[in-house]
Amino acid sequence: MKTRKWLMIAAMGLMLTACQEKKQPYNIIVKKEQAPKSTKTLAIGDYVQKYHVEWLGKDYTITVAAKADSTLDKVSDGTRKYYDNRIALTIDREDGTQFLHREFTKNDFSAHVDAGYLDNSALVGIVYDKIDGDNLTFAVSVGSPDKSSDDYVPLLIKIGRTGSVSVSKDTRLDTSSADEAADEVF
C-alpha cells in the first residue's frame, strides 16, 4: 500500500507538471513595415521679406518674394524632388513708384556656378545684405533644396544707382566684421 501511495503521488506530480502551460518568451518579433516613399514634389520657397533702407539720401522699400515655381525644372537632393524657386526683387521709392522689379531663377547665375552643380541645385534665397557706396548689395544662395543642408554657392547681387544689376561670387568669409569684433566681449 505504501508503494501504491508513492506511485500515485509520483503519477499526480507528473500529470501536474505535464499539464502546466509552457512559458512563452516575451520577445515579440515583428517585421517593420517600410514607409511608402513620398512621390509628392515639395516646395522650398514661398516667403516674402520687406526691408526699409535709406539709400542715396532717400527712403526705399525692398521686397524679396520667393515662390516655388512648377513651370521650372524640378530639382532633386537624391531622395526627394523639389520645385525650384522664382524670386522677385522689387525696390520701391518712398513716393510709391517702382525703381526696380526683376525676377530671378537659378539660370540667371549660371555664369558663376558650375553646370553640373547647377543642374542638381535650386535658387534657395536672396536677402538684403548692405549698402556699399552707391550700390545695394544682396546675398544669393544657389544650392541644395533640402532645408537642413548647408551645401550652397554664395553669390552677390549689386544694384547700382541707375538700376544696373551685377552678379559676382561672394568671397567673404562667414565671420563677423572688424567693427562687430570690437564690440564683442570675451
**Structural class per helix/strand content?**
alpha+beta
**Radius of gyration in whole Å, from Cα?**
34 Å
Ranges with pLDDT <50 over ≥5 residues?
177-186
The assigned CATH architecture is Beta Barrel
Helical amount = 10-25%
Order of helices and strands: HEEEEEEHEEEEH
Question: Averaged pLDDT, please?
Answer: 85
- The beta-strand count equals 10
Q: How much of the residues is beta strand, in percent? A: 35-45%
**Count of all domains:** 1
Largest sheet: 6 strands, mixed
Morphology: rod-shaped
What's the short story on this structure?
With 186 residues, the chain is an alpha+beta fold.
Task: Identify the notable features of this structure and list them briefly.
186 residues; alpha+beta; Lipocalin; rod-shaped; disordered C terminus
Task: Give your account of this protein's structure.
- This protein has three helices and ten strands, in the order αββββββαββββα.
- The strands form two sheets. Strands 1, 2, 3, 4, 5 and 6 form a six-stranded mixed beta sheet that branches. It has a four-stranded antiparallel beta sheet with strand order 7-8-9-10.
- It has a single domain (42-173), classed as Lipocalin (Beta Barrel), CATH 2.40.128.
- The protein has helices at residues 2-19, 115-119, 178-183; strands spanning 42-43, 47-55, 58-69, 75-76, 81-93, 98-104, 122-132, 135-143, 152-159, 165-169.
- Mean pLDDT is 85; it is low at 177-186.
- Strand 2 (47-55) and strand 3 form a beta hairpin.
- With 186 residues, the protein is an alpha+beta fold.
